[in-house]
Amino acid sequence: MKIFPTQSIKELDAYTIENEPIASIDLMERASQALTKSITKRWEAETPITVFAGPGNNGGDALAVSRLLAEKGYQVSVYLFNTKGELSPDCEANKERLVDVKNLDFHEVTSQFVPPVLTVDHVVIDGLFGSGLNKPLSGGFAAVVKYINASSAQIVAIDVPSGLMGEENTFNIKANIVRADVTLSLQLPKLAFLFAENQEFVGEWELLDIGLSEDAIEEMDTDYSLLEAEDMQDLLKPRNKFAHKGDFGRALLIAGSQGMAGASVLAAKACLRSGVGLLTMHVPYCNNMIVQTSVPEAMTELDPSDTCFACPTDTDDYQAVGIGPGLGKAEETEGAVLEQIDSCLSPMVVDADALNVLAGHRNYIGRLPKGSILTPHPKELERLVGKCQDSYERLTKARELARTSGTYIILKDAYSVVITPQGKCYFNTTGNPGMATGGSGDVLTGVVLALLAQGYASEDAACLAMYVHGLAGDIACKKYGAIGMTAGDIVTCLPLAWRMMEE
């Protein structure tokens, strides 16, 4: 599913109006019917509704919804803010349609606003401003937003919470943004919905199909999209009946140190549970017995050091190399990681402590083998690119890093995202808060490593691994609950996740 900037959404609207063809007011009516249907599913007709409508098309949507709700027996109070004496044509048309509508109390605010009483029983519909907003709210509208937020009512935002911009909100004023419980987004999500700091404004979001041109959506280019199950299933490579282990690649995992053998075990098990043909683990001597016992399916290669990764190894026989889980921060490890990068020709999956080494030697990022994948969480990324004020800036800097270094990045978050050197961003739709636990990232590293070793293109490997890792997490969450699940549970559920992908 594509995610378009707000300017592109305007173009989609215009294309639909011209080519369906459909009148603008009729497209608004279609959107309002979808909005009304969603609202009536959530709240009974006994629920008092208060609508705040702005002078633009977002306000027009709100007025049309008011009329449709009133016709269904809801008691609706409407406040239309027309302080400049100018409404959009469609907003004006929907204002005129409110005449003689029963169950509807209409107020047009031209100067002084007397706020209505809002109780815990009320539902507020926010139709003040839509996604076309390009500057923070101020003055009277900011005061209205603060009043809405201070109430105990449940708040439903039409398309986007008023005051929130569709993409960047770095310099926005948080106090002047509606804090919605539910956001009913028209046709497509907004990029801003996927950023952690905006959750307090967006709340739960639901997509409503309003029949925008499918041809236009297909043809219009964008750098942002949401991964969907069908797309991921199409990436899976079928297995030949006469295949043997050599057909599914040899992977090398450089991981573990004294006290952190668990990270290497989790990554190795995830790799083996994701279809790799052969896995070799390069570990210090102190981890040997643990690894041999915990992961008997993997071969081991011992580092000369007793306690850490201290000596780079030959990677010529491997289709992919994973490095980082549980490596630790020993001085000799830092040197070994840099030497390993310089000597390796196969694509690498770089995670955890190996990322921290790169943070201290940023010139080495561009020296990684072609097709390499970095898997940082937000703090690890900031060590690579510098401090970021918010998720939008973090995404922007990650895109620049991917472009300049030629690497692929899986930026881990609630909506993890694969970023390509070409600037494409694929956001994940699987996963849950139960995955916010130590070792979850190690599991992801193992899955990515397995797919790279099997010959998947880096972009496909990153997207598929991220999606299946989240899917396994969702299965684990259903089985164990978000509080009780561990990274090991994600590994345990990987086979079922892969089976679901194959069906």
From TrEMBL:
Keywords attached to this Swiss-Prot or TrEMBL record, sorted alphabetically, are: ATP-binding, Isomerase, Lyase, Metal-binding, Multifunctional enzyme, NAD, NADP, Nucleotide-binding, Potassium
YjeF N-terminal domain mapped to chain residues:
9-218
User: Which GO BP terms, alphabetically?
Assistant: metabolite repair; nicotinamide nucleotide metabolic process
- Can you tell me which residues bind (6S)-NADPHX? 57-61, 130-136, 159, 263, 326, 377, 442
List the EC numbers from the record: 4.2.1.136, 5.1.99.6
Which stretches make up the YjeF C-terminal domain? 228-501
GO molecular function terms attached to this record: ADP-dependent NAD(P)H-hydrate dehydratase activity; ATP binding; metal ion binding; NAD(P)HX epimerase activity
Q: Which domain of life is it from?
A: Bacteria
Q: Which cofactor does it need?
A: K(+); Mg(2+)
Binding of K(+) occurs at N58, D126, S162
- Provide the residue positions that the database annotates as binding AMP: K412, D413, A414, Y415, S416, G441
**Pfam families per the record?**
Carb_kinase, YjeF_N
The answer to whether keyword Oxidoreductase applies is no
Free-text comment on the cofactor: Binds 1 potassium ion per subunit.
The protein's annotated catalytic reaction(s) are: (6R)-NADPHX = (6S)-NADPHX; (6S)-NADPHX + ADP = AMP + phosphate + NADPH + H(+); (6S)-NADHX + ADP = AMP + phosphate + NADH + H(+); (6R)-NADHX = (6S)-NADHX
What does this protein do, in the record's words? Bifunctional enzyme that catalyzes the epimerization of the S- and R-forms of NAD(P)HX and the dehydration of the S-form of NAD(P)HX at the expense of ADP, which is converted to AMP. This allows the repair of both epimers of NAD(P)HX, a damaged form of NAD(P)H that is a result of enzymatic or heat-dependent hydration. Catalyzes the dehydration of the S-form of NAD(P)HX at the expense of ADP, which is converted to AMP. Together with NAD(P)HX epimerase, which catalyzes the epimerization of the S- and R-forms, the enzyme allows the repair of both epimers of NAD(P)HX, a damaged form of NAD(P)H that is a result of enzymatic or heat-dependent hydration.
> What interactions and quaternary structure are annotated?
Homotetramer.
Q: Which family does it belong to?
A: In the C-terminal section; belongs to the NnrD/CARKD family.
Can you name this protein? Bifunctional NAD(P)H-hydrate repair enzyme
Q: Which organism is it from?
A: Bacteroides intestinalis
Gene name, Swiss-Prot/TrEMBL: nnrD
